[in-house]
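Case study.
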Amino acid sequence: MPRRFPWLALVVGLVAALGTFGVLLLLQNINTRQAEARETVFRVVEITEDTVDPEVWGKNFPLQYDSYKRTVDTVRTRYGGSESFQKLDQDPRLRIIWNGYPFAVDFREDRGHAYMLVDQRQTERVKQFNQPGACLNCHASVVDAFRKAALKGGLPADKVHTSEALFEGFKIINKMPYAEATQLVDHPVSCLDCHDPKTMAVRITRPAFINGIRALAESKDPVPHLPSLERWRQGNRATPYDPNTDASRQELRSMVCAQCHVEYHFAKPDKTLTFPWHNGLKVEQIEQHYKEVGWKDWTHKDTGADVLKAQHPEFELWSQGIHARSGVACADCHMPYTRVGAVKVSNHHVRSPMLGVAQACQTCHRYSEEEIKARVAVIQDRTKKLMDSAEDAVVGLIQAIQTAKAAGASDEALARARELQRSSQWRMDFINAENSQGFHAPQEAARILAEAIDLARQGQLEVVKITPRPTSR
Amino acid sequence: MTDKNGTRWRWIGIAAVVLVGVLVGTGAYTAQRAQALSYLSNDPKACVNCHIMRDVYDSWQKAPHHAAAVCVDCHLPHDFVGKWLAKAENGWNHSKAFTLQNFHEPIRIHAKNAAILEHNCIGCHQNLIGGVLQAQTSYGQAHAEYAADDKGAHLGCVNCHKDVGHGP
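After joint prediction, the assembly is written out as follows.
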C-alpha cells in the first residue's frame, strides 16, 4: 500500500509537468493571436506628396509593399499571365492584320506592374519608331514628373500640389519625344499614383482619365455601374464631374485602374492622351467618336484602308459585364482582401484572379476552386473560338481587298470594302487587345466578335461585287 | 521498507502535488486569458474573441437579422442537449483550427452545421414558408441533401438568402 501510492505520485507529477508545458504553449499561442488582433500600425517615416520612392512608403506599410514587390512574378495562365512571350509568333495572323503598324513588329504578353517602365523602354515599338512622352502616362509613376515639368513651365510654386499642376505637366510631357521624357521618371506605377499620402485614400491623378470620365458623364450612355455619374447627370451640373470628390470609394477602386486599362489615342496636334468616351463606353460608340474626329491609327499596308488599333479596353468591357453591374470593382478580384494575422490587406500583387481563386472568387461564389476555374475556362474557350473565326474573317477580307487592288480596282470602288475592314478589324481587335479573353463581359464579347465576323464577310461580298466577272466564251 | 525510503517518497508526493497545483494555476490563468467562460454565454462578442470572425461579426451588425437573432440562434440547435453537444464539438474544432491556423479561407460552413442552420431557419419561419416547403421538398429531404453532400453544395435557404445573417 505505501509503495503503490508513491509511484502514482511520480506519474501524476510527470503528467502535471507535461500538461503545464502544453498549457504554456497554448498561452503563448493565445497571446500571439491577441497581439495580432490589436492591429498596431507603426509610422516610422513621414510620407508626403514628394515621397516618390515606394520603398519609403513600404516602411510604414510593409504588408502592402511586400505584395506590391511581387508583381515581378512571372506566371503563364490559360490565355494570358505575365510571361513576355511573342504573341505574333503564337498567332501569325496578327502580323497580317496589323501590317504597317508597329504592333506587327513586336507584340508581347505584358509582364507585371514592376516591369512596365523597363519593358516599354525595350520594346521594338519604341526602339524602332518615334513615340511621344504621352506613353509614360501609363508606364511610369509620373505624378512627380508632371509637377516638376509644370513648375519648370512657369507654374507658381504654391500650386505644385494642385490638380492644375498635373494638367500642366501632362500637357508638356505628352508632346516631348519619348527618349527625353523617360529620363524624367524612375519608377513604375507606385504608391503616390493611387494614394493620398496623408490619408491613404484612393485617388485619381491622371488628367486623361479626368477628361475621359467627364466626357462620359456628359454623354447619354447609361452607366448603372457608376452611380456617381448618374447622380451628377441628374444634378445641376454647375461644376464638371470630378471623380476625386463625386465618386464613392468602391467606384474609385475601379477608376484608379481605369486611368490606364482603357482604350486611348494621342489626339492631334499635341499628342494629348485621350480616352474616347464622348458617346459612351461601348465598342460602336467609341468607333463613332473616332469617325467624328476623323481618327485613324494607321493606313493598312496591304489594303490602303484607314484602320484603328484597339488598346486593352478592360474598363470598357468590364463596364458591360455582370460583375460591374453587381458593384464588383477591379480591386475586388485583382487585388482581393487577404488576411495577414488579424489585418485585412488589399493584395497589391495585382494579377489574374485565376491565380488566387480562394480570395478572389470564393468570398462570393461558394463553389470549389476547380468548379470556378472550369466555369471561367468555358467562357474563355468559347471566346477563343469566336476570336479565331473573327481573325480568319478579317484576314480573308484583307487578302480579298489586296487581290482586287492588285488587279487594278480604284480607290472609289474599294471604299466600301475598306470601311468594312476598319469596322470588322476594330471589333476583332477590341476583344483581342482586351485582357480577359471575354471574361469581363462574355455576352458582349461574343456580340462584338459576331459583328466582326459579319462585317468582314460583308466586306468580302463587296469585293466580289466590284471584281469584274470573267467574260464568258 | 525503511524510514529513509518513506521520506523520499513523501518528498515525491509533495512535488507531485505542487506540480498539479502549477498545472491548475497556469491552466486557470490561460483560461482566463482566453476568456474561456465567455464561451458559455450566448453573447456574440464571445464569437469574435477570435479575430477570424470579425468580418462576419461586423456584417451581422449591419444585416437584417441583427435585430432578431444572435450567432447562436442560427448556428446552434435550440434544444439543451443538442446545443451543448454542438457547442462542444464546434468549440473544439474552432480552437484547434485557430491555434494551428490550418483552415481554408474564406471560411466555410460544414455540412453538419449547415443542417443545424437550415433547421433554425425553418424553426422560426415555418408559418411563412410551410407551404413552400411542402410544395418543393419535404423537410426530411432537405436534411438528406445535407447529409449526402459535404462539399457545401446544397439548396438550403441561405443559398439564395445569402446576406440575411451576415455578409460573405
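Observations recorded in class. The helical segments of chain B are 3-33, 44-47, 54-62, 71-75, 80-100, 111-136, 139-148, 157-160. Chain B has a mean pLDDT of 84. We will return to this complex in the next lecture.
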